[in-house]
Amino acid sequence: xxxxxxxxxxxxxxxxxxxxxxxxxxxxxxxxxxxxxxxxxxxxxxxxxxxxxxxxxxxxxxxxxxxxxxx
Length: 71
Fold this sequence. Notes:
By secondary structure, this protein is mainly α. The chain has three helices and no strands. The radius of gyration is 13 Å and the shape is globular.
């Protein structure tokens, strides 16, 4: 998917537009990185779950987090 296509208001499998989903994914990755720097494993797992869910809804490859036991 190109950047131009992600700006259109196409619906994903959820009630959000594609652009909203990409924004949520970006914020989830930021939260994950912050939790990782702080060494907060519980929040890292929470954000990893959100990241994988949004990636699945967008139809892109789903990240794995082997250090958290999430593949």
